[in-house]
Design brief:
By secondary structure, the chain is of the alpha+beta class. The protein contains 12 helices and 10 strands. Strand 9 and strand 10 form a beta hairpin.
């Protein structure tokens, strides 16, 4: 275990390196921070930190920089989550409050996160498999053509056109709409199939075929939309950190194009807490020079998806964690109120 003083030295090294982008020497540390000891003592502490793998000497520089292990200890023990200022919180609320639908919410969230953190922002769409039905609407477009509109508790709206073999009257349509909603509203999508399987039998023989077609379309929608979707923004921010990547940012850009990789980076959506993956903790080799900060969001205390940012390991962790957490909280509020 490191002593409190050496932990303070590590904290100072991380803060200075993140702020200045320059390797940190013992003289600079004693001048910038009230460590209460001589430069010689700080040099000794830095030697111990280097031996333990928390800091390293790049090239022939006299200064030191944090390693992945050093950043990990900083995040776990030394970094508090920096709270956002009142103007920042108001700006988030005002920006997100103007959203008109779920796509707009996700799009605004990506842009906002990228602007606040100056990193690459990634937002996962709420999954239908973790959503519940708010309403099913059935509209008649022609005597033998219907539109099914599925609305979820997260504000997601899915529309499907249905061509019927025979005309379906308004009375039958209203009856089907009422019976369908009475069975599925407030239910998880994964629970819907057995709840509606016997519904055709409760209709007149001439309507059963159309009812079955409507139900098949509804259930197919659930299968089609089970695939996870996400939106990414702020990739151009990476160009500001070119020197933070060993050779080139190309492996990072290639990784960001792989949706499966990004979903794994964000983690399982049922993990609602803040997650910080640093450098080589990211399994995908192309992202070994990056850190990922992510958190779950949702309404009613239930996590429906995740959002986060990707940036270099030389990151303002307290500020980034604070921004990610605050944005997730506001998105959850919007979903709860929508």
């Amino acid at each position: 275990m490191l002593s409190e003083r050496r932990l303070e030295v590590l904290r100072a090294i991380v803060q200075d390196y993140v702020g200045t982008e320059e390797p940190v020497g013992s003289k600079a540390l004693t001048e910038r921070h009230r460590l209460g000891v001589s430069p010689a003592t700080v040099r000794n502490d830095m030697a111990v930190l280097e031996d333990e793998g928390y800091i390293a000497q790049p090239h022939t520089s006299a200064g030191r920089i944090p390693t992945d292990k050093g950043y990990r200890l900083f995040v776990d023990k030394l970094a508090g989550v920096k709270p956002l200022s009142s103007p920042e919180r108001r700006a988030i609320q005002n920006f997100l409050d103007g959203a008109v639908d779920l796509d707009d919410v996700v799009g605004r969230t990506v842009r906002l996160l990228a602007q606040l953190t100056r990193q690459v922002a990634v937002v996962q769409y709420p999954s239908l498999t973790r959503s519940t039905v708010r309403h099913v609407e059935l509209l008649s477009l022609a005597p033998a053509r219907l539109m099914l509109v599925l609305i979820t508790d997260t504000g997601r709206v899915e529309q499907r056109l249905i061509d019927c073999l025979v005309p379906f009257g308004e009375t039958s349509l209203a009856d089907l709409r009422a019976r369908l909603n009475s069975r599925v509203v407030g239910r998880r999508f994964t629970d819907v199939p057995p709840l509606v399987q016997d519904l055709p039998e409760s209709f007149e023989a001439e309507d059963r075929g159309t009812v079955s077609t409507v139900l098949s379309t509804l259930l197919e929608t659930l299968v089609e939309e089970a695939e996870e979707r996400l939106m990414i923004g702020g990739t151009a921010n990476l160009t500001r950190f070119g020197h933070d990547f060993p050779l080139t940012i190309r492996p990072v850009l290639e990784a960001l194009e792989e949706q499966v990789v990004l979903l794994k980076l964000l983690g399982e959506a049922n993990e609602s807490g803040m997650a910080v993956r640093i450098g080589h903790e990211n399994a995908y080799e192309g992202l070994n020079s990056t850190s990922v900060v992510s958190v779950g969001y949702g309404s009613g205390g239930e996590t429906v998806a995740k959002l986060g940012v990707v940036g270099p390991t030389r990151m303002d962790y307290p500020g980034t964690m604070g921004a990610v957490r605050a944005v997730a909280r506001y998105v959850g509020q919007i979903l709860a109120e929508s």
